[in-house]
Design goal:
The protein has 419 residues and is mostly helical. It has 16 helices and three strands.
Amino acid sequence: MTNIFTEISPALRRRHAAETRFMWFGRIAIFIAIGFLVVMIGSIAWIGSGALKQTQVELSVFIDPQEISADAIADADYSKLVKSALRSRFPEVKKRRDKKNLYGLVSYDAAYTLRDKVVADPDLIGQTVNIWFVASDDLDMLIKGNLTITGDEKMRRFDDKQLGWVESLKQEDAIETRFNRAFFTSGDSREPELAGILGAFVGTALTLLVCFCLSFPVGILAAIYLEEFARKNRWNDLIEVNINNLAAVPSIVFGLLGLAVFLNAFGLPRSSPLVGGLVLALMTLPTMIIAARAALRAVPPSIREAALGIGATRIQTVFHHVAPLALPGMLTGAIVGMARALGETAPLLMIGMVAFIVDIPNSILQPATALPVQIFLWADSPERAFLEKTSAAIIVLILFLILMNLVAILLRNKFSQRF
C-alpha cells in the first residue's frame, strides 16, 4: 500500500503543478488584456481631454455706429470691427503679412460672436466693450503646449513676432482657457476650434431609434415563428441557412443594398437617419433572430407541456409563458446587435451620411451624420486640433455604448425569471 501512494504522489504533484501553471497563465492573460485596454482607453482619453478646453482671447472692440446701420444690424461688417480691435491692440503692426498673422489669432467666428451680442443689445452701438472671442486652432494648440516654440522660425507655426503678441496678451490676462461647451452644443465645422458633436450625436440617436424600432420586433417575431410555429421542411431550412449566412455578410454589402433599394428605387432622402436606420436594421436582424431563437430553445420543454396541459393554446403558451422567460436572452441579442450597429461606418458611407452637415437634424428625414462617420472624417483631417476632437468623440461613443448596454442589462435583469 505504501508503494502505491509513493508512486501516485509524484504524479499528483505534477498534475497540481500543471493546474497551478495553467491558472496563472490565465490570470496573466487577463492582466495583459486589461493592461492593453487601460493603455488604449487612457491614451485616447488623455488626448481627447484637450478638446474639453478652449482658448479665448479678450479684445476691446469699438462698436462703430458708422459701420452699423440701424435698419440692418445683422448685415454689418463685424469682421472689420474685430480686425480694427486687433490693430488697436497692436498699433506697431503695419505690414500686410503681419496684419494677416495678427488677424489669425482669433477664429473667423469672432465676427458672428460680435454680431450676436450687438443684435441682442443694440445699445452697445457707439460703445467700446470687452468681449471674449474664441482663439484660432493654432493659438489654441500653442497655449495647450502642442506646438513647438523653439528652432528655426521657418519651421514653426508661430514666429517670434507672433509669440511676442501672445506673450503680451498673456501678461494682460487677455488669454484664458475655459471649458469647451461648444464641443457638446454645436455641430460640425471646418474650423477645429468650432467643431462639435451634437449634430452627429443626434443623428446617431435617431438612426439607432429607427434601427431598434424595426429590427427588434421583426427579429423577435421572426424567431418566434421559426422556432415555435414553422414546420420543418426544406423551405424553412433554406430560410434558416440564409439567416445564418446573412449574419456573416460584410456590413458594406448592406450599404450597397440600401443605396440600390432605399435611395435609387424608393427615392428616400439621402443621408437621412431613416435610410441609415433601415440599413442598420437589415444588418442587425440576423443577429437578433439567431439570439432570440437560442433564447427560446433554452426554455425547458416542461413549460410548454405544462401550459398545453392546462388547456392553453399554442399562441397563449408562446406569448404568455415561453416568450417572457426567453426575453432576457432576446435582450442580450438586442444588445449585441445594437452595439454592432452603433459602431458601423461602412454602410452609412454608402448611403451618403459622410456628407459635411452643420445643422442639427430635427427629424429622421433631414440630412444627418453619425458619430462613427464623424470620427472617420475628423481622423482624416490634416489639422492637428482635429486629433483632440477625434479622441474626445471616441470617448463619447464608448460612453454612449456603455450607457445603452447598461439600460439593456437593467431591462434584462428586470424581466428575468427563474424556472
